[in-house]
Each structure stands twice: as structure tokens, then as C-alpha cells.
Amino acid sequence: MILAPRFRQGMKAAIPIWIAFVPSSIAWGIAAQAHGLRFDEIVLMSAWVYSGPAQFAVLEPLATGKSSLQVLIAGTLMNLRFVPMSAALAPYFAGVRRLKLLLSCHFVSASSFIVPYIQFQKERESGSKTDEKKPREGEHNVYFFLGVGVTSFFIWVVGSGVGYGVALGVPRRFDEALKFILPGYFAGLLVIEMRGWTMRLICLASLLVAVPAATLSPEWGWITVAALIAVVGWGMEQWKQLAS
Amino acid sequence: MEATRLVIILIMGALAFAARALPQIFFLGRTFPPAWDRFLRYLSYAFICSIVSTTLFMSGGRFESDAVPHRAVALIATIVVARRTKSAVTGMIIGAALVSLLSWIY
User: Fold this and answer.
1) What is the ipTM, given to two decimal places?
2) How far is A166 from chain B (nearest CA, A)?
3) Would an 8 Å CB–CB cutoff place B72 in contact with chain A?
4) Rounded Cα gap, residues A137 and A240, in angstroms
5) Closest Cα of chain B to A74: distance in Å?
6) Choosing among B92, B93, B101, B105, which should be mutated to test the A contact, i.e. which has the most A CBs within 10 A?
7) Does B63 touch chain A (CB under 8 A)?
8) Global pTM value
9) Do A152 and A33 share a structural domain?
10) Which CA distances in Å does A190 have to A107, A169, A185?
């Protein structure tokens, strides 16, 4: 089952994520070790929390012995971004058994959301053009998602463990390329699938405003502004349709 | 493993799991009306663009102004190449090579 073609297709699509996860997971392992976390704590946190930004966010409060509530609030605020991501994926998993779905959703992360989401959109659009209905579409989608999610998760956890003992000595110019891989890949995926002026404007506005918003509020700024831009764009489109 | 830290990690993971699992339970297989479907799509795309922007231009909550010019040029090159070749990987490779080259030159 695990070698299902759909799972392999997901694995293939996840390769750029793996490349990007290697340095960031090792960097997290190094940072966690430097903040006094032990090997088992580092691996457990990577495997059970599996959220880079949240893991980085709680390092300092954990190391300085801040209150548990404060650490949990910091982590949870970062992880709330999974709610809209998971909600956007849910319609594509129709017919999947609940237990399988519950186990699968542990692998939802920003990266493992973007790649399958865009793939499902593309397939749904090409399916609606040909009026082709795939049997067990939800199952097919879940295997693609797992191909992306499980393998990326594995890289993240192993990388964190490796980072515990290894210092990262990548020259700056390679560092730049590694940093670029993930956003570059996402931008490429997005631009291929982009259709209509509303979507283009929403994307451009989000791209431009995210950084100032994140500077003002690192946890909530970019997500709030992205949601606002989507609401405004969608509202204007609805208004235009009603007027015409 | 220190008990307090273990408890914090376990609770944090459980909360992260809830954030991932609850929408799957509530929205599983639902077909939204076309307008809502479009809204979810716009919301997702806005999130993705924000993630691209913050991942590329920020580090540790700080705006990396020095790196903006060459990363922005590389991003534009990625977008153009990906759009023309219909290949996200080709665009990403060109962009990564360009950002390396520019950071090496400047």
C-alpha cells in the first residue's frame, strides 16, 4: 500500500521540500542543543509537535524557564495557522476512513499543505474540464498527501537529531540558495496555477504586505493580513458579480 | 528527560494535533458553494504568498533588508521561468542559482 503510485507521486513532488528541510531541521537541532534541550527532547518535539516556527518560538521561553502557560501560548499561537490549511484540504479527502484521516493530519505543515493543495486544485480543474470522475478520489488524494507529508516529516525528525551533534558549516552563498529553495518552489507552483485578476491581485498584495505585517506582529501579523486581503478580494469580486 | 519539559512538549503537540485534526473532522468531504470554494482558494493563496514573502525576506522575526535586492530578483526570475516553462522545479533551480550568484558577487 505504501508503494502505491500515488504515494510515490507525492514523494517526487516533495523532493524540493526535503532539500529545504535538511538545513532547517539541522539548524533547529543545533539551536535546541545550544538552548540546553537534550537529544530525546529534541527528537520528541520534532516528531510530536512537527512545526518548525513553533519549535523555534518556544526555545527561548523553554530555555529561560518561563512559565509553562507562556510557552504553550507561544507554541499554540504559531500552530493556529494549521486550522485554515487543514480546512482547505478537508474537501479533497471525502470518503477516507476517519482513523486514517486522523493519523494523516499529523503531517499537515505549511510545506505539506501547499504542494498537495495546488496539485488537487489542478486535478480537480482538469477533471471538471473532461467531466471525468475518479473513483475513490479522497483515497487517492490522501496517498498523495502522505507521500509529501510522511517523507518530509521523516527528514525533519532525522535532521533535528543530526543537528544535535553536527555544526552547520555551509558557506554563505550556498546558505542563500538553500534558503531560497522552498519559497522559490512555492512561488513557481503558485504562478503556474494562477488564474484571473482577483487571484493575481490577492497574491501580489499578500506578497508585498506580509513582511511589514510580520514585523509588527511576528505571530499574527502575516496571517491576519493574508486573511484580510483574501476577504477584501473575494468581497469585491462578489460585489462586482452582483452589480453586473 | 525533565518532567516539566516533557509535559510542555506533550501538551504542545496535542494542541498542534487539535489544530490539524478538528478542521478535518468538521469539513471532511464537504462541497462548499462555488462562492465559498473561491473564498477558501483565495485564502489559501494569500497564505501561501505570505509564507513565500516572510520565508524569503525575514529571518528570526527581522526584515533582512541587505538581502532583499538579490532575493527579489531571484524571485522574479523564478516566477517568469516557472510561468514560461510550466515547471516549478525549473523556476526554483534558476532562482536558487541566481540568488547564489548574486550573493557571491555582491
Assistant:
1) 0.83
2) 21
3) no
4) 34
5) 10
6) B92
7) yes
8) 0.73
9) yes
10) 21, 32, 9
